[in-house]
Amino acid sequence: MIKKETYPIVGMHCASCKALIEMMVKKLDGVESVNINYGTEKMTVAYDDKKVNLEKIKKSVESAGSYKLIENIEGTTILASPSDSKEIKQDLKDYKRIEFEKTTKNLKYTFIAIMPFIFMMFYMLLGIFIKLPMLNMVIPYFNIIQFLIATPILFIFGKDIYKSALNALKIKAFNMDSLIAIGTFTAWIYSTIVTFTPIILLGKYIPEQEVYFEAAVFIIFFILLGRYLEQKARGQTNEAIKSLLKLQAKDALVIRDNEEVKIPIDNVIIGDVIIVKPGEKIPVDGIILEGTTSIDESMITGESIPVNKSINDEIIGSTINKSGTIKFIANKVGKDTLLSQIIHMVEEAQSTEAPIQRLADKVSSYFVPTVIIIAVITFTFWLLVLPNFYGNMSDSLRIAIYTAISVLIIACPCALGLATPTAIMVSTGKAAKKGI
């Protein structure tokens, strides 16, 4: 039997994450189709439940990186039933809240830690316009101080980026985090070597050799800032779904063993006789057995005038009983109610992709490997060509690494517009300090 269900995915940071998850899930025998909408963070998957189960799909999602598929206890479609979705939304909200708090905490500590680098950047830029003796002073062990500040920023506050890149590498794939991780780690490892053992790369000891700790630190900071803003914006999405969920009734007054008993809407079953008094919400879909009333169905039809209802008329769950007391028999509960079907259709509509989005996703699957190849070519070119002009191997290696890192970082859409201006400012300051 082919099942088609929609589930939230937490932990995605870019379109490459989406492509990785889809690639891993499609490998499963029995999965007919899988589509992830990165904007809504939802995955719609069609699979043969005789060949593959939800547990295998979850493990496949997690194997692609730091991602998690969220399901409810029964393993049914997310938001298929308003009564079930209450708990599911709370679980999903908790996951998103934890992720948001983690990003906020890392961003705050990173911002505090980069303050010395900000002062250093202005120190260098000031040297462009003002020639002061103090600006030409060399601070002893300055590179070691940068190393001590930059290392925890990269590998503690930015560890999720490296973890994501490593997980992608394990399955022989790349994502946007791969670009960031390779670029920042290369800058860090080069700077660390020339700080402590420059003879390995440069062939001689050069005091206070130029390093790129600040470039790696600023890139991590702006990536975290971008993710913070993105998560904050996403927290304000899906308002239509949330509004629909708020319309549902929470409990129902049913007749059990000839007694009136108020029970949670989750416990209502088909065939229950339910009593609804004036001003109350109708819990589920059904047919009136006793009484006449007028019902506000504006949440379904948009019509503001209440509709008169009497015996044998159908009524819709979550609409409002305006006048008389009625008894009705429940004929649709849970995911079969009209409200549930509307929510389900909205979910499916959000999970579909426009043709241009599918084209962009296809391009993104080739984008990262292409950028890495270009970075390698750039590195090789400057390493081999520059000595022909300057005859200085150490400068050639330094510039080759710097240009390769620039290709990796600037090509990453996550960093575009944020890290680039900072990189330009830092580079300009260093060039001015050297008199270039």
Major sheet, described briefly? 6 strands, antiparallel
Rg on CA atoms, Å:
30 Å
**SS field, number of helical segments:** 16
- Beta-strand proportion: 5-15%
Estimated structural class: alpha+beta
Q: What is the terminal-to-terminal distance?
A: 70 Å
Structure description:
The protein has 436 residues and is of the alpha+beta class. Helix content is 55%, strand content 15%. It has 16 helices and 13 strands. The strands form three sheets. The protein has a six-stranded antiparallel sheet with strand order 6-5-7-13-8-11, with no helix packed on it. A four-stranded antiparallel sheet has the order 2-3-1-4, sandwiched between helices. The longest helix is centred in the N-terminal third of the chain and has 32 residues, at 82-113. The termini are far apart. 34% of the residues are buried. The model is unreliable at 73-90, 128-132, 134-139 and 415-436 (pLDDT under 50).
Annotation keywords:
16 helices, 436 residues, four-stranded antiparallel beta sheet, six-stranded antiparallel beta sheet, disordered C terminus, alpha+beta
